[in-house]
Design goal:
about 325 residues, alpha+beta, 7-stranded antiparallel β-sheet, 7 helices
């Protein structure tokens, strides 16, 4: 399978498996979990933790879901029931958090699903995850946000933890294949250019830099995170003029919403450096002859890297049936 087969690859994965973006889980401040289990999440400014129990001390804001953020899954859907269990976090399908309900679910939008009007996910998919922060008069404007991508297997259609022997590897590969960004361009030839990659799963959101929408329960500041599962290695590594690229490049020059220019080459250089330093997050069964210190390694070893990138996609697809994004707001 090579970079010329993006469409074939999407069809292959669609036949082989069902990878569903199930829900965006909103949670706050502290997350304790092991490779194949889930822990507790709490919506607080300050917490006290003892093993798996968390006690809230202060409460300066709520989270909310509106519009496209509202989960399309029925209350009795398997994934909703699974996440509602206390041992899996106790995440509830509610419009907002409050003192009694501190972890909620909202929708992770898939704008390019494998099957139209579905949430099925395959290489080439992209979309957005969003939630609202609703301050409660404390004057606080800065919020630390972290994102954990939590893959799940399926047993008879019911979500289940991954096999512990492969859970860490799968979680690492998902972090290299489903990329998160804080900004993207307007649609360009059926896709977007992306910038401001969330490299370690964390970022800071400052409400003073955003415009609120006033609702009945207060001012809502919407946090948007954009995600993409590139169809091929070339889509990430090559610029749009490279003849080896046969689908839309992830990076390119554009002007962001604030009127500032985005340098596509700089964005591409950043992820190529990350790939060289953490190639276990991007490739499976990598050819040992690949030398990441070689100038333009992405071009010189293009065939080997493309094959290993595709093997990683297949490894994800054969073993992961549900994907939950856990958003922790501190």
């Amino acid at each position: 399978m090579n970079d010329n087969n993006a469409k074939t690859k999407r069809e292959f994965f669609g036949r082989l498996l069902l990878l569903v973006v199930t829900a965006l889980v909103l949670a706050l401040s502290v997350a304790l979990y092991a490779a194949s289990t889930f822990g507790w999440f709490a919506k607080t400014f300050s917490v006290e933790g003892s093993e798996m129990n968390v006690k809230a001390k202060d409460d300066f804001f709520d989270l909310a879901v509106t519009g496209d953020q509202v989960s399309p899954y029925a209350s009795d859907a398997a994934i909703v029931r699974y996440l509602a269990l206390s041992e899996n976090g106790g995440f509830l399908k509610l419009p907002s958090t409050d003192n009694s309900h501190q972890a909620i679910i909202c929708h992770m939008t898939n704008e390019n699903p494998h099957i139209p009007d579905s949430d099925e996910m395959a290489p080439g998919a992209y979309g957005k995850l969003s939630f609202d922060i609703v301050p409660k008069g404390s004057g606080r404007t800065s919020f630390n946000i972290s994102i954990d991508m939590l893959p799940l297997a399926s047993v008879g259609g019911t979500p289940a933890p991954l096999d512990a022997a492969i859970a860490d590897e799968l979680t690492d590969l998902i972090s290299g294949h489903i990329l998160l960004y804080l900004d993207r361009s307007a649609a360009v030839n059926g896709g977007y250019y992306y910038s401001e990659r969330i490299t370690d799963g964390t970022f800071v959101f400052d409400t003073s830099e955003h415009t609120a929408v006033t609702m009945a329960d207060g001012d809502h500041y919407t946090v948007d995170v954009y995600w993409i599962w590139p169809a091929t290695f070339g889509q990430v590594a090559l610029d749009g003029s490279n003849p080896k690229l046969h689908n839309h490049a992830v990076y390119g020059d554009y002007t962001n919403a604030g009127g500032d220019p985005v340098d596509g080459d700089a964005e591409r250089a950043e992820i190529l450096e990350s790939i060289a330093n953490e190639h276990g997050k991007f490739f499976k069964s990598l050819n040992p002859g690949v030398n990441f210190s070689r100038t333009a390694y992405e071009d010189y070893f293009f065939v080997e890297l493309t094959d290993s990138y595709n093997l990683a996609d297949q490894f994800i697809g054969e073993r992961v049936q549900f994907l939950v994004a856990a958003i922790n707001v501190d």
